[in-house]
Amino acid sequence: MNPQSVRYPIESQIRGREALKSASERFPGRLKTHPDRRSTYLDTFDWRLYRDGGSLLSSTDGRVTVLRWNCLDGTPVFRARLRANPEFAWDLPASPFRNALDSVVEMRRLLLRLEITSRGETLHVLDANQKTVARLHFETASATGTGSVPKTLALPILLIAEPIRGYAREFQALVDLLEDEFQLQAASSDPLTMALETLGLEPSASSGRLTVQLAPEMRTDEATKRIHKELLQAILDNEEGVRQDLDTEFLHDFRVAVRRTRSALTQIKKVYPPDVVEHFKRQFAWLGQATGPTRDLDVYLLKMPDYRATLPEYLQTHLEPLQEFLIRHQRLEHRRLVEDLDSQRYSQLLESWRSFLDDPVPEAASATSDSPQAEIPVGKTASNRIWKAYRRVLKQGQSIDGGSPPESLHRLRIDCKKLRYLLELFRSLYDKQEMGTLVKALKRLQDNLGDFNDLEVQQATLQSFAHDMFQEGLATVETLMALGRLVDRLESRQAEERQRFQREFAKFASRKNRSRFRALFEQHETVAT
Amino acid sequence: MRVFATYNIKGGVGKTATAVNLAYLSARDGARTLIWDLDPQGAATFYFRIRAKVKGGGRKLLRGKRPLDVTIRGTDFEGLDLLPADFTYRNMDLDLVQSKKPTRQLARLLLPLALQYDYLFLDCAPSISLVSESVFVAADVLLVPTIPTTLSLRTLDQLDRHLQERRTTRPRLLPFLCMVDRRKSLHKRICASPHEHHPEMLQTVIPYSSLVEQMGLRRAPLPAFAPLAEPSMAYESLWTEIVNRLSL
Question: Which tens digits make up the pLDDT trace of A152-199?
């Protein structure tokens, strides 16, 4: 309905100035030079806003910061005036802007991703009343990436035609001049994408999903090393954010990468020498444990809004001491975690792991017989492992009925986890759509089992928090009551999850899914294990 | 979309200055804002340097024959659009009377705008008529600039009583004192305790200032060309007070 600004790359500053000058002779108006303007693109570490099709641009005049959330094509979505850049979505004042931002970035910190410095001139095209009816900007700009080694590069020089609502004719005349007489062609990409391309940044690079591409005929040890290398990179990518505690997801993704590393070590059997597996299994288990306490506290802090909403209003404020308790202990645990990351054990672990992964795979690994599966094509190994893990899940799940003890559900949860890791590690070997369907189905079941387990752990943990808080003199009677109410509520929610289990499992084990698994993974020739 | 109307039965009390300046501030703060100049004199339209002309005149617009959408014009300020006045708006009463439920017609026309804008300011012509009745139906809030004189306060009272008598939903009345001249003892007395004159009377007082008159010369909202001047600051605090009062 309303035309958007059109951006035209132009080869030189001289041509740009000339074009602006001849436009100003054609259209009555006012030319204004503007000095250097600095603005910053904010986004999360995993580029959630960009991947959602938008950009969050902050510009400041030193006094006021204006935050603009636009679609990539320039359509404005939200705008706000603030004192400073928000660090999280919840730093914005309560508004539709905050709610929408929160739903996209959630708990992730808004990092300064790119800085743009621009200067130029603007022709304000005026009508007889000196009213602006269109604008033509001539702009030269440079982009600076943030990161360990920030670099600044010049962006394409641009002429930008900006329409004003209700003055379509005047805008069209301007566009005609640029396109027909000056022979300019509109830019094909939006400003943020253009800046990212200039800097050679790839926003999809850190989205948490494994991107390693395997081929079925590849040797299993070679494929496993590739998987492990990508996971090592994920650990390294997130390490700095973990150290600085920028937001909870750095540690979360760090831990996921560690768990996947261990899972690939133990689930893909007999491809590395046993002493290697044994050593690194132990080392990564240590790293997993070292990061556990901080993550647990992070999770409880993330749950606080939900906890508050669970309670009647008069008890809600009495949860404040819990929040303080969590924050204090999280800081403590985080400091310990950083000590672990600073330790020799950690740096040696990564170093020796890296050098093991960089070693070329032995020519004839099977011959040495300590890694007999190393040379088998990874396609075979993957199907074999996934099929086994899947059968296990089915068998374990089918043995559960309404009277089974909670332990049986916990066992099934672990089996599901193993299956999930295998599906994710080997995703690239199979049909994308089919894998998507199966992972989704499995995820639903896992959510149910996860919640069931989680709710139980939460009850126990909150009770022990209550105990600790009482001893630390943090808990009033009301706080203890609020915690009691909360535990009650969690217990009944856990019962609901238990109720749901049978239904969820039946869905997962449906005939359709079973034949999908069979078609993808069942192998008719026997593979020695 | 929340609808504000700057309204007073009396003329020359600063309705247009209020609508123009508050709409400007709301847009500056990031809200998508539209101002509809309903006054056939077209002062608000003039302040934004836009031609006071609607294709097909007010009649087509009010009968829904011509969508409001295509009539809207962007001002020189980001996030602030204007629906221009037209001299045919002087016949708006007649145009309205011919539609089915005349007092609801205006509200009906606004519906398609609800997703495009956060705030709409209706700048009304003085008088009490079918048009003002339509405004009472369409608006969520009536902003009533009131000069601190006995007669003005009496008119405010009349308006208040008139609204109380309405059976249907009525807009919230938010009066405030304006064109206040601190040299006049009556003004000073009335301004000492604003809410005595109306329970919802806003605390902010807009002083009399020749700068407000300069809006006609500069043809721009006051905070746009004199952001630090006393009356600009007064409009700033008025807008802040309104936002807080309504918990927007």
Answer: 999 999 999 999 999 999 999 999 999 999 999 999 889 999 999 999
Residue-wise pLDDT tens digits, B138-166: 999 999 999 999 899 999 999 999 998 88
- The span from the CA of B247 to the CA of A504, in Å, is 44
Q: Which domains does chain A have, with CATH numbers?
A: 6-203 (2.40.320.10), 208-363+370-521 (1.40.20.10)
Taking CB atoms and an 8 Å limit, are B30 and A80 in contact across chains? Answer: yes
Q: Are B74 and A131 inside 8 Å of each other by CB?
A: no
How far is A500 from A502, CA to CA, in rounded Å? 6
Cβ atoms A110, A89 nearer than 8 A: yes
Q: How many structural domains compose chain B?
A: 1
d(CA A87, CA A111): 7
Q: How far apart are CA A117 and CA A34, in angstroms?
A: 12
From chain A, pick out residues whose CB is under 8 angstroms from the CB of B50: 129, 131
**pLDDT score of A367:** 56
Domain holding B191: CATH number? 3.40.50.300
ipTM for the predicted complex comes to 0.90
Tokens found for residue A302: 């993330």
Q: What's A377's DSSP letter? A: B
Q: State which residue of chain B sits closest to A124, comparing Cα positions.
A: B76
Burial class (CB in 10 A: 0-12, 13-18, 19+), B214: middle
Cα(A346)–Cα(A291) distance, integer angstroms? 12
Q: How far is A86 from chain B (nearest CA, A)?
A: 15
Query: Which of the four pLDDT bands, split at 50, 70 and 90, describes residue A368?
Result: low
Query: Looking at residue A255, what is its pLDDT?
Result: 96
Token digits of residue B187: 């003004």
Confidence check: pLDDT of A473 > 60: yes
Extended beta strands in chain B, E state: 2-6, 33-37, 73-74, 80-83, 119-123, 141-146, 172-180, 205-207
Q: Which residue has the tokens 């749950």?
A: A303
What range defines the domain where residue B49 resides?
2-245
The H or E element spanning position B179 is strand B172-180
